[in-house]
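User: Second chain of the day. Same drill as before.
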Amino acid sequence: MYQAPKIQTFIPAVVHQSKAMGIFAEYYVIDLLTDKMVRKRVRLTRAVKNYPTKHLRLLAAQKIADEINRKLAGGWSPLHETDEGRLYTPIAQLQEKFLAAKQREGCRDTTLRDYRSITNMFVRWCEDTGRAKKRSGTFLRNDAVYYMDFIMEKGNSNRSYNNTVKILRSFFQWSLDHCYCRENPFAGIKPLPKPPKKRILISKETRCQIARYFETECPQMLLVCRLVYNSAVRPIEAAQIRMRDIDLDRHCITIPPEVAKNKRERCATITADMCRYLRQFVDTNSPTQYLFGPGTQMLPGETHVAFSYFRKKWDAMRKNLGLPDEM
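Assistant: Same format as last time:
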């Protein structure tokens, strides 16, 4: 006899016969959106009508019921075959689909890392709070509010809180657009007010002090500062400059579209003294090598330096020179 699984997700199909329904199979399957059993009935009269006797018709109907039970035991659910089948997608599986879609769309590596980092934290929270058993269609606004309360209680900055809201709103909007949920639970959550940026201008005397420091400690970091200050190159773009991008004859560096923030190629002009400094690397390294490689001195290499390393170098300089945090 058929044995139901330990975790009951369905009640096996049983053959019945009535005047109104004829011969039919009746079974129950759990609706993962409501955690309630849903009754399903399958009319079998036409399927077994060619059998000559009632006994044979019932035996044939039982074979069909047994086949339904085998499918149910294997995880099949008739609810998943409807237009709403995607609503039953587990949150962790939905995250994988979302990240894969963003990668196909050509998201920048840094953007993809942000998506992965924020959604990883979100999935872990779902697991820790028991919400991992929820499906994409059952994660509602109250769940989103609880999660943002959790982020707030962690003591995150307003900027981090707002970035979390922005990314999860994007995550569930993609899910909504692809029929994995009926609403975006993060759509109505308002961002926190942005605190005013505390920045002060760097005086000429301080800039000279910083230049002397990096000339001794790390000339490559001084080049980074000059690229940002003189050539308007973003630090994340500077980290991905290759030798082939540097044109010393034209006194410029090409920022390729796959590196540029706006996906548009542009040329950043460089000064004569920067050209003289760069020549030692351009003449001795292959075109595919990166200008800033890993290591404390950030010398050219086959892989590029981590963008965050620029900030570490700057913070160390600021601490050693006794400069304020706002600088």
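Strands lie at 10-18, 22-31, 36-43, 246-247, 252-255, 266-269.

User: Great, on to the next one.
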